[in-house]
Task: inverse folding
């Protein structure tokens, strides 16, 4: 069994934004019992011991945690590469300087569009102007800047302007990934999935920009898998390279696996009760879809099973109610009709332009433990991306 | 960037360095070197790490090769160039000239 390379730490599901494409679970209030500072530090230490190299600090909005500087410092001292995935709200100049001093390696700033009104509409709160300031602060402090724009039906036609905005900000990287229809985003799928015409336009713009900006900015562009012939190699295989710890300490092989675990009656693997080593190696949820013994046909006999690992378990669960089915995105899946129907709706010529998203419902006030919960020890003890370059001695 | 274009840029006078968002680490738990960037990890062998450690934006590729010759019996310039160019195409390294 490989050791994990990456840990996504979802520190809190509290967030000032109300993005309709949010991939966090529907019932945020189930995750209000958040890990304490000391508990997170222990999780980071166990992760480093397990071989994790990269720590993504996310949420919700990770800056909603008052201990974010202390958490970054602790991860940095463990030698982890720390990546803050933020809306920018809460990143004052002073706090940014503190994070820089604590050793934060990289900031990934989300923005919803290149136009103030559209960006604020999608975010469900005025935030565009603040994000512009934060982008400048990030560069001023000497951090590399990655701009992260989730693409969907309502903003994908702005892609040229979005790239121009990233250029003006001197962003080092821009991630233009179409929405994953997990969690809350699932409710908004019909309003999020772009048409084929929209995607064709976006692709032309991206190709031109990549040629032009090859040496100054890295452009990552991800099409919706609904338009692919084969599913994406989700997580590079279940419990293979990375995992997630959510605000209440539950560990998940994929950041969208909350509902899947409940739906299949698999016991939660919580860091308050188990070591990360035990969870990675033995937790039933992690073992369930590891390797290929769980695979049904057409995956089992498919020569692509080592390439896409049967696709996304969470998507299979969300669409069919059974996480052990082939990802319906695959054109060979018996459930592929579900995808075809959604794509047909997205391309219906009688659909009016525009649309509105159901805004993300916010979480109640988090309940943050201040004392350390002792753990009952039960055992002994890294988009990571398909581009891992493995060079063997 | 395509590899052919990167190979042109990464010539003997190029001064490579890691991109600002990339960090070289040796991970004791795994016993291997890795280059870390926001979304990607490149695991590299000890030879790769020896090259990266010399890529400090002041040494040229020719100087890096000369230093490696002092450390290793066999050093192929083409391999060093390809290694650096490969990382340039992936935005893991940057080069300066002059």
Result:
């Amino acid at each position: 069994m490989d050791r994990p390379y990456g840990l996504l730490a979802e520190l809190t599901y509290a967030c000032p934004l109300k993005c309709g494409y949010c991939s966090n679970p529907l019932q945020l209030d189930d995750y209000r019992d958040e890990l304490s500072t000391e508990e997170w530090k222990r999780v980071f230490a166990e992760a480093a011991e397990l071989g994790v190299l990269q720590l993504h600090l996310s949420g919700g909005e990770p800056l909603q945690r008052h201990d974010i500087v202390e958490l970054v410092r602790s991860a940095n001292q463990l030698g982890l590469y720390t990546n803050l995935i933020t809306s920018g709200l809460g990143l004052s100049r002073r706090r940014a300087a503190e994070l820089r001093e604590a050793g934060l390696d990289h900031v990934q700033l989300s923005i919803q569009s290149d136009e103030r009104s559209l960006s604020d509409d999608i975010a469900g709160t005025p935030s565009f102007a603040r994000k512009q300031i934060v982008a400048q602060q990030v560069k001023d402090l000497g951090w590399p800047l990655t701009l992260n724009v989730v693409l969907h039906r309502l903003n994908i036609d702005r892609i040229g302007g979005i790239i121009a905005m990233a250029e003006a900000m001197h962003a080092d990287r821009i991630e233009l990934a179409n929405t994953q229809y997990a969690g809350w985003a699932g409710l908004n799928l019909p309003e999020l999935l772009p048409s084929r015409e929209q995607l064709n336009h976006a692709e032309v713009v991206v190709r031109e920009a990549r040629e032009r900006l090859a040496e100054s900015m890295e452009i990552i562009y991800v099409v919706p898998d609904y338009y692919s012939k084969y599913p994406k190699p989700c997580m590079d295989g279940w419990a293979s390279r990375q995992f997630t710890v959510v605000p209440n300490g539950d560990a998940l092989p994929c950041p969208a696996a909350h509902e899947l675990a409940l739906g299949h009656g698999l016991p939660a693997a919580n860091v308050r009760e188990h070591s990360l080593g035990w969870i990675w190696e033995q937790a039933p949820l992690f073992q369930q879809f590891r390797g290929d013994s769980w695979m049904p046909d057409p995956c089992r006999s498919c020569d692509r099973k080592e390439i896409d690992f049967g696709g996304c378990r969470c998507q299979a669960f969300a669409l069919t109610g059974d996480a052990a089915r082939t990802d319906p995105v695959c054109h060979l899946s018996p459930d592929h009709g579900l995808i075809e129907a959604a794509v047909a709706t997205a391309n219906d010529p009688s659909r009016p332009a525009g649309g509105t998203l159901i805004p993300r419902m916010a979480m109640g006030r988090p309940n943050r433990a201040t004392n350390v919960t002792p753990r009952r020890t039960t055992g002994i003890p890294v988009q990571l991306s398909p581009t891992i370059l493995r060079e063997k001695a | 960037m395509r590899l052919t274009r990167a190979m042109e840029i990464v010539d003997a006078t190029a001064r490579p360095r890691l991109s600002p968002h990339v960090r070289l680490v040796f991970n004791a738990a795994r016993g291997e070197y890795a280059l870390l960037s926001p979304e990607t990890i490149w695991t590299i062998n000890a030879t790769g790490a020896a090259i990266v450690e010399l890529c400090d934006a002041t040494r040229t590729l020719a100087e890096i090769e000369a230093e490696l010759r002092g450390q290793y019996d066999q050093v192929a310039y083409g391999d060093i160039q390809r290694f650096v160019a490969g990382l340039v195409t992936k935005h893991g390294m940057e080069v300066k000239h002059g």
In short: Chain A touches chain B through 37 residues (CB under 8 Å). Confidence is low (pLDDT under 50) at residues 377-393 of chain A. The first strand of chain A starts at residue 6 and ends at 10. The CA atoms of residues 195 and 205 of chain A lie 16 Å apart.
